[in-house]
Design the sequence.
C-alpha cells in the first residue's frame, strides 16, 4: 500500500495542518486529556442557554445551509432514551455493509447530487456523494422503514460500547470517509461512534441536545471513547466549518 504522510498532531490530538485531504489522524484519547475537554464544556454550559431547539438546529447547519442532523419537530425513537448515547455505535463490518448498500443506491441513481450545492466529486467511486445526500436518500428512508431509530441502533438495538469517536465533515464524500476510517481503524478497537449513523435522522435531534452541552450524545460518546479519529477530506477543510 502506498505510504501516506500524515500531518503533525498537537497535544490535543488534532491535525495541525488543516485541509490535508489524504491524511487521517488516529489519536489515543487518554482519560487525562478528555477530562479537561468535558470540564470546559460544562463551564461553557454554565454561561450559556443552549436549550432552544431552533437555536440548536441553526448550530447544526453547515456553510451550505443544508441541515446536518435530524428532522425538526419529529419524535425521537424510544431506543434513544433507553440506550446510553455512548452505545450508539457500529462495528467495522457494519461500516463495510453501510458502504456497500450506499454504493448500490448510488450506482442505481437513487442518491443524486444536490443541484443547489453541487459536489464535483459526486460521480467518483473514491469520493462519492456527500453525507448530506446519503442521509437524505439512503439513511432516512431505510431507518424510517425500520421504525425511525438511528442506523446504528437499527443494526444493534441493545447498543455497542464506544471505543472510537470520529470527527469529520458532512460535506465530504461518503466513500472517501469510509475508506479513511477503514484504513486507520485503531488496533484493538471494536465499536465506532459516528454522528450520522448514531443519531436518529428521522427524529428531532434538538430534543437530545436540550440542556448542558456536556450532557449531549456527542459528549457522552467522546467521554467514553479511548480513541478519536479526525477525518479530513478533498472538498473542504474540516476546521473551516461549524459542521
Sequence:
Amino acid at each position: 500500500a502506498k505510504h501516506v504522510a500524515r500531518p503533525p498532531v498537537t497535544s490535543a490530538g488534532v491535525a495541525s495542518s488543516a485541509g490535508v485531504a489524504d491524511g487521517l489522524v488516529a489519536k489515543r484519547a487518554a482519560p487525562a486529556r478528555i477530562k479537561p475537554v468535558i470540564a470546559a464544556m460544562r463551564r461553557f454550559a454554565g454561561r450559556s442557554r443552549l436549550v432552544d431547539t431552533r437555536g440548536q438546529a441553526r448550530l447544526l447547519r453547515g456553510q451550505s445551509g443544508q441541515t446536518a442532523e435530524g428532522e425538526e419537530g419529529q419524535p425521537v425513537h424510544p431506543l434513544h432514551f433507553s440506550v446510553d448515547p455512548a452505545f450508539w455505535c457500529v462495528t467495522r463490518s457494519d461500516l463495510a455493509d453501510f458502504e456497500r448498500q450506499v454504493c448500490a443506491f448510488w450506482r442505481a441513481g437513487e442518491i443524486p447530487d444536490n443541484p443547489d450545492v453541487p459536489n464535483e466529486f459526486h460521480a467518483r467511486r473514491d469520493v462519492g456523494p456527500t453525507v448530506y445526500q446519503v442521509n437524505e436518500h439512503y439513511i432516512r428512508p431505510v431507518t424510517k422503514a425500520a421504525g425511525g431509530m438511528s442506523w446504528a441502533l437499527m443494526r444493534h438495538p441493545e447498543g455497542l460500547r464506544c471505543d472510537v469517536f470520529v470527527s469529520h465533515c458532512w460535506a465530504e464524500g461518503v466513500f472517501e470517509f469510509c475508506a479513511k476510517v477503514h484504513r486507520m481503524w485503531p488496533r484493538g478497537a471494536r465499536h465506532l461512534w459516528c454522528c450520522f449513523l448514531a443519531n436518529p435522522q428521522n427524529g428531532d435531534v434538538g430534543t437530545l441536545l436540550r440542556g448542558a452541552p456536556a450532557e449531549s450524545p456527542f459528549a457522552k460518546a467522546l467521554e467514553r471513547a479511548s480513541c478519536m479519529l479526525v477525518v479530513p477530506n478533498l472538498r473542504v477543510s474540516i476546521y473551516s466549518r461549524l459542521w
About this structure: The chain has a mean pLDDT of 80. Residues 31-47 form the longest helix (17 residues). The first strand starts at residue 25 and ends at 28.
